[in-house]
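Weekly puzzle thread! Below is a chain. First person to post its structure in token form gets bragging rights.
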Amino acid sequence: MYTVFWIANLPVRVVESDTFSTILRSKRRELEVILMSAATSPAPVPLLQEGLAYWEELVNECKRQMNAINAAAMDHGLVAEHLIEWIPGRPLDMIRRQTPSTEIKLNLSFERWGPVISGAIKGHQQEDLRFYPEELEVPLGRDEECTVAIFDEGRSLSPREFAGYIAQRFRRCFPDLSLPCPE
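Winning reply:
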């Protein structure tokens, strides 16, 4: 019988169980050992490339919509501190800090059934009055040759439509402005 293990994040080794037991007893304090009962290869993640491509397009669309909203706000005389900010990093993170405020955080993860976009939308109407927070968990799937976000009861959204859905949450931040609609 063979056992697979890692030692201090070094490459995988396969040894006979008796040899492994000897190593474990002799190096108990020196080694970090993680056991596996079998050497299996991980299953491929469904829609991996499609999910990554969807995410990239969603991020680009959200940036484009944020820039359009900021341009409309600046046209009405708002200064930079009252605009929506893009926070760089792996999760998609946009925030308007001035009240009424809104913060949107989204992240792409890969479950065993496929890619999922999850996140939260929160904010404050006034300093001491919060908006009711929204949580999202939107799986991605295939629909007629393209990757879509599957909303609610099966409504399919392209990256542009999903970005428009997200951008609309910033309407509450600019109640007196006519914001651009997604194309």
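Puzzle host: Confirmed. Bonus trivia for everyone else. The longest strand covers residues 102-111.
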